[in-house]
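Regression test attached.
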Amino acid sequence: MEDILPFLIGCLYAGGIYLIFHRSFVKLIIGLVILGYASNLLLFTISRITRAAPPLIPGDATQLTEPFADPLPQALILTAIVIGFGLQAFAIVLIKVGYKTLETDDLDDITSTDKLEN
Amino acid sequence: MENHILIVLLIPLVAGILSLFCWGNKKLQQYIFLGGTLSMTVAAGFLLERVVNGGIIVLQSAGWEAPFGISLVADLFSSIMVLLTAIIGFAVAIYSLIEIDSHKIRFGFYPLMNFLVFSVCGAFLTGDVFNLYVWFEMMLISSFVLMVLGNEKAQVEGTIKYVTINIVASTFFLAGIGVLYGLTGTLNMADLAVRLPSVPDDGLKDLAAIFFFIAFGVKAAVFPLFNWLPASYHTPPITVSAIFAGLLTKVGVYTFIRFFTMIFNHESVFIDNLLLYTAAATMFFGVLGAAAQIDFRKILSFHIISQIGYMIMGLAIGTKLALTGAIFYIIHHIIVKSNLFLIAGVVNRLKGNFNLKKIGGVYGKYPFLAILFIISAFSLAGFPPLSGFWAKFIVIKAGLETNDYFIVIVALVVGFLTLYSMTKIWNEAFWKKMPETQAKENQPKAVSLSAIKPMMLPVIMLAGITLFIGLFGQSVYELASSTSEQLLNPKMYIEAVLGIDYNL
C-alpha cells in the first residue's frame, strides 16, 4: 500500500496542476478538486499507514501496544474533506455565475481587472 | 483569566449568529455589527492590558491538556493583532452604514462581516496548526462571498482569480501540515517548537517550511505570489476592500512571523536567504506596479504588496530590533492602509470616479479631507514624525546593524517610489483642477460631503490613531520591543502552553 500511494499522489498532483493550466472554468474546478484529494492522501500517507490495528485498548491492558493505527490524521482528513467540499461547492456556483455574467468560460478572456486603465 | 480570550472570540460569533436571526431587519443588523465591534475593541483592549501586565494567557479548550487538545494562546503579538482587528472592524462598521446598500444587506453582508472578524481573531489566537488551517478556511469562505456580493462583472472576475489561487494555497498548507505531523507526531505549535529541532534533518524540514512559505506567501501576497491581489482588491465595495487590505494580508504576515520565529527558527540558511530576497523583490515589484497605475484603489493595492516586503524584511533579518520594526510596521500599516482605502471611497463619492485622470480639485473644496489624506499618505511614505517614518526607520536601522546593505538600499529606493505615487494621488485627485469635460460626466454620481458625513468619522478616527502612533512612538515602540522579545524567546510561549516541567 505504502509503495503505491506516493505514485498515486504524484499523479493526482500532476493531473490537478495540468487541469488548472487549462483555460476552461470547468477544468479549473476539476483541477482544484483533484489537488484537494492529492493533499488529503499525502496527509494520510505521510503519517504512516497501519493496517488492521484499530487504536483500541484491550480490556485487560492499561495502554495501547504497538502497532496501532493513528486516528488523528484520519480525523484531520475528514475535517479537510468537509471544508474542501464547502469551498468546491462555492467555486462551482461561482463559475456558473461567472459564465452568466461574463458570457465566456475562457480564463484568457477575463483580463479586465488586470489591465491598466487610461 | 482565560475567559478574556473566550469573550473576544464569542462577541463576533454571537453577533454573527444574531444578525442571521435578524435577516430581514437592516437597521438591527447594522447596530449589531456596530455594537459587536465596539464591545470587541473594549474586550481586546482588556485582553492586551492583561497580557502586558500578567504574561501569556492560555486557554485549553474543553479542558484537554496540551498538546492533546486545541490551545488558544494570547501572547503580546496575538493580542495586539486582535485589538487592531477590532479597531478596523469598528471603523468599517461606521463606514458601512452609508456605503452598503440594502440589496447587499439582504444577501447577508453583515453576518459575513461578523464571521470574517471572528475567523481573523481565531487565526491570531490559536496555538494549533490544524486549527489555524480551519480558521484560514473560514476566513477565506467569508471573504469569497463578501468579494463577489453585488455580482458586478469586475467583482466576479476578481473573485474567480482570488478563489483559485487561495484554494491552491490551502492545498499547500494542508500538505505542509501533513509533513510536519509525519515528522513530529504533533500539531500543537509549542510542542512542535520543542520536538522539531530533535528531528534528524534530511531535507523534509525545509520541504515543510517551503510548503508553509507558499501557503502563507499567497495569503500575505509576497513576490511572486501576489498577482491575485491587485486583480481583485479593487473590485468590491470600499468597506470590504478596506477590511481586506487592513487585515487579510496581515494574517499571512502574522503566521509568517509566528512560524518562522518559533517553529522554523533560523535553522536553515536557505530559508533565511529565501525570506530576505523575497522581501526585497516584494517591496520593489509592488511599488513599481503602483507607479504605473492611475486607479486610486489599484495604486493602494500595489502598495499593500510593497509594504508587506518591509514586514518580511524585518522577519528575515531576525534580530530583536528588526522584529520590533516588523511589528511596529504591522501596527502602523493596518491603520494607515485601511484609512487610505476609506479616503479613496469618500473621494469617489464626492467626485464620482476612482480614476485619477478624471477627478480633481478635492483640496480646493474639502481642505479638511485633504489634510486627513496627507496624514495617512505621508505616513505610508515615511515622513517624520508620522508613524510610517518610525516603522521604516527601525527596520532600516536593523538592516544596517547586521550589514545587510543590499536590502537597506532596496528599502530606501522603495521609500522614495512610495512617495512618488502618494504625490501622484495628491496632485491628481486633490491639487489639480477638476477636468471640465469630466465634471459633467461624473455629475450624476457625485454627492456633497454633507450627505456622507458619517463616512468621515472612521477616517478621522484612524487618522487620529496614526498621529498618535507617530507622536507617541516611544510607547508603541516599547510594546513592539517586548513583543519581539517574547517572539525571540519561544521558551516563554512553550512554558505557558505546555507547563514549566514539560520536556521530551
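Expected vs. actual: identical. Chain A has three helices and no strands.
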